[in-house]
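pasting for the record
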Amino acid sequence: MFLILMVRGKARFVKPFFGETTKELTGDDVIRRGFKNCEVELILNDADLTISINRSRKRGLIVKLIGSSVETNITEGKKQIECQEILKSLLGFDKNVFLASCYFSQESLSLFTRLSDVDRTNMITHLLGFETYDNLYEKVKNKIENELLNKNNLNLEVEKLKRKIELLNNDRNSVLNRLIEINNDISKIENRIVIYSNEVNDYTDKIDELNNSIRIEIDISDLEQLINSNILDLDRLNSELDKLNSERNILNEKLYEHKNFRMRISTIIESLGNRLNEIMQQINEFRNFKIGSRCDKCGAIISSDNMEKFIDEKTQNLTKFQCEIDSNQQKLDELNKQIGGVSSEIRKIDEVIGSNKIIIKSTNETVKTLNSQKYVMLEQKNSLDKNILELNTLLSAKKISISDCKSELSKLNKQFSQFDEQKNSIESNIEILNSDINACKASNLNIDNEIEILMFWKESFSSKGIRSLLLDKFCNEFNVIINEYLSIVSNGLMNVIINPIKILKSGEERNRIDFDISLDSTVVKYNSLSGGEKRRVDISMCLALNKWVSNKFGIQTGLLGILILDEIFSYIDRLGEETIATLLFNESRNRTIFVISHTPELISYVDKEMVIIKENGVSRLEQIAEKMQT
């Protein structure tokens, strides 16, 4: 790396990078007498690319990339804060990292040891990049606050919607009450219409009944025709009845003859049967006689021949009698059929006669009734006409009442429809508002889930989260580095323990960077050390910080390959100066170390010597001849 520094005015080395001096002077403070502007330019020259960093009080920061034939102003048209971010991105570090690893003034040399535990912790956390976690913590915290604000707004919106629903419910209840009133009025009118309609139907039925009665009354000719027709039917029925009685008498005589003949045939069959039984008995008795015995009746000797002959004769008689019985039985069966037929005809005639007698009786009664009705109806006619007139008058009045009720009912139905539409509209709005409330609740649930996740990350990005782990790691790494340097500058007499936890007097533990110093195996306070002992601790702290930052960024030579130390040998004895100078010489093997000092005895340790000469209020650097070291 080839470094050229061109300075006009009272600028500091840190000015071109970060627009500030190490003593935080203003623009007016750094302008020298006779100049109206303060301008600093720093050129970083690499093999392939040259970077020009120019900062002035008037134009601000300008960064240019200079190639072999092209020069590009990459900050043109940008705001100063954007230009600074571009430079930071180009360099790869910020002011704090630079001051912690490259530049140590007499004041900042003891900065780490003299800071309060809170400020010291903040410094280390800044080097560890805790700003990222702080930013993330703040972002998460702000997001949680925003989510809580959103949740609160949603809750307010829910309450607002509930109040709207409450008002709508009141309106809905009013409308419902009005609908109930209208519905009750409609029911009353409908009941009246039903009552009036029933009365109209009753009147109509009575009028129809009376009209039907009047029709029967005035239809006298029909009654007379009916009476005459019944009389003719009576004559015809009586004539038929006489004829049937004559036929019945004839059938009765015939039936009598058939029954007498049947009696005679039955007597003959009975006689033949008795004779047949006698012959059978004789045959059976004869068969019981023994051959050679005598007959009881005739005394003749019984032989097988005469026994067989006797049985044959009797058997022939049996056959003869049986034939006669069968013949007479056929006659008897035929006669029974004839008797049955005649009896059936007589029964039929008796049924017709009975039916005709009933009809004749009924017809006589009908004729008598019709004649009575004829006279009664004529008497009732005038009364019925009067009643019909009265009923028609009442019927007309009820119909008018029904018409009035229907007209009123139509108005009420129209009002009911209007209020029902209003109710439906209110219920629809309530449903929409309830849907909005549910949506708000769902959003609240999502917010709760989001807050739960954010609370996890808030805890993770807080001092109790990942940062405590990073502080532990830093302390472990830093303890190794610083004690390597402190062992050299103190000849092994001193040791430093950096702790991420500070124990308060109350016994409470806090995540704060604290350190203990061991001198000759005795733990002592930093403020109890001598000036030289403090300076050895301070130098070890600065070199350790430089090395730790270099290791953190993976740069073996450190940032820009330089280290600037301003007045670091104060309070150091001669032996200590040589020990520290030897340490710095060894550290300069892979980087350039600038030492600003009033100790000329140390010139033998450096490669180059430069002298600051001030004339007319302006300082300049002059290089003394370069020395060769072995």
